[in-house]
Amino acid sequence: MARGRTHDAGPRKGGRISGECYSTESEREHLALFFVGIHNVFSIMTPLTLLAMLAGITPADPSLFTLQVVDEATGRGVPLVELRTVANVRLWTDSAGVAVFDEPGQSNQRVWFGVTSPGYELPPDGFGFRGRAFQTKPGSTATIKIKRTQIAERLYRVTGSGIYRDSVLAGRKVPLREPLLNGQVVGQDSVLNVLYRGKLFWVWGDTNRPSYPLGNFHVPGATSLLPDQGGLAPEQGVELNYFVDDQGFARELCRMPGEGPTWITSLFVLPDADGRERLIASYVKVKPPLTVYARGLARFNDDKQRFEPWSDFDLAAPLHPTGHAFLHKGYVYFSDPFPRKRVPATLDAVRDPKQYEGFVEGTWKLGQAAKPPRLVDRLTGRRVTAHGGSVYWNAYRRRWVMIFVEAGGKASYLGEVWYAEAESPAGPWGYAVQVATHPRYSFYNPKQHPLFDQRDGRVIYFEGTYTHTFSGNHDVTPRYEYNQLMYRLDLADERLAVPAPVREQGKIVYFALNRAVKGSIPLKVGETTWYGLSADQDSPATIPLYAREGRYVTTRQGNEKPVARVWPAP
User: Fold this and answer.
1) Architecture of domain 65-156 in CATH?
2) CB 400, CB 359: distance < 8 Å
C-alpha cells in the first residue's frame, strides 16, 4: 500500500534542519528576517482569517457569491444540482450542495438561477419556470430549499476531482483530507469492495487521470478505515487511501497477461490452510468492442501489494464467479444482481468450475445456469428488467435486500435504481420499488455497503457509476461524469414496503405486505398477519381478495365483495 513519502533535505553547513543553533552570522540574519515576515503576515490577518487557517479552512474569496442548495426535509446540502442563469452560465453544486458564482459582469446584480436535479425539484412559478433570483452580492450566501421526489437521498461523490471544489472556494470546512484531487483520479468506473484484514479494500474499473485521456485500465485500488475504527461516518464520506505510482496516480493492481484491459468482476476473502485471510478476485480480459476473451482468478500478494494470476477459468464453463460476493452458510454467493450462483467457500472449490451451482427450478444444481426471475413494479404492475446490482442480508428488515439498476427504464436506459426484498438469497424475488432516477443518464452497477449500515440496518448506503455512457446523452456533467455517487435509504419509509409471498400448504397463492402502511388492511393467515390495500383503492398492480370459509381467496363467487387488494404471484 502506498504510504506518505518524506524527503531528506540533506545536511546544511553550520547547523541541522532543526534542534541546533545557527552558527553563522548570515544564517542568523536569514532567521531574523523569517520571523519578521511571519509577524507581518499574522499582523495583517483578521481574527476570522487566522481562526480559519488554524482550523484547516481555506479563507473565502471575498469577490465570490455563494449558493447553498439544501434538502428542504433534512437541511442537508444536495450534490449534483444544476444552476443555470438566463445567459446559460451553468453551475453544479459540489458534495456539500455548494456552488460559487464567479461572473464579473453579473456581480452584485439581480440574477435568476434555474434549478434542476435528478430526483429533486423546485416548485414552478406562474410561468412554469423553476428557479430563484438573488442579488449576487460579493461575499454573501443565498440558500435554496429543494424538495426530494425520490426515496433515496443523494449524499456525496466518492471519487473524482473537485468533490468539494466550491466549498473550498467558499472557505468552508470539508470532511476529506483530499477534497480536490485524490490519487490524481478524475473518473472511475464500477466499484467492488470487501473487508480484508480489518480495512475496506476497494477496486474500480477503468480510471481517468488529469494528464492524458488514457488512464489506468488494469484495476486501481484503495483502502479505507471502517467508520467505527477511525474512518469517516458514512453520511460524511469515504477517506480513500489509494495505491499510487511514482507520479502519484492510482496505479495498476491487476495487470493480467494478454492484450486489452483487465477488469475485476468479483472480490471476496477466504481463509487458507493456516486460517489466514486471502483476498481473491475474478477477472476478465477484454478486447474491442466489449468482448471477453479470457477469464481467471487472481490472488492478492500482500508483500508486492498487487494481484497475481492464480487460476485460469474455462470460458465455456456454464457458471463462473462474477458479481458482488457474500458468504452465507458455507458458500460464496455471487449477485449479478440475483444471487442464484454459488460455490463452496474454500480456495480449492472456487478454482473448480465443476463445483459451481445454479438455482434452477427451485433447487441448487451443479453446472446449471439459472434464469433471472421476473420482477414487477409494486405500483404499476409493469415488468422491471434487472441489469446489475448487489444483495446483502439486512438485520432491520430480516430479509435479503437487493439494490439494482433497471435495463431499459422509462427515463433512462441504465439510470433507474430499484429496491427489492426476499426471504432467502434464492428468492422468491417478486416485486420492487423505484428509489432513485437519473433521467437521460446512467447509474449502473450499484453496490450496497452493508458495513456502513446504521441503526441496526434501518439506514443503508449504496453507490453507483454516474455516467452518460449508454444513455445517448452527450451533455456531460462536469466533474461528476464517470464517477461514483453515494446514496442512503431509510428502510422504515413505508414507500419501501414490498409485497412478499403468502403460502398455503407450501404453495404461493398471492403476495401481500408484511408490514402495515397507511390505509392498509390487516389479513390474518394462520399465525401470521399480512397487509393488503383497501378494497376501493385504485392500484393497477393488485387484484381483489375475498374472504370465504375462514380463508382468503383471489377468485370471486357470485356477488362477493372484496375485503382487500393484494398482488398476484409474478
Assistant:
1) Sandwich (2.60)
2) no
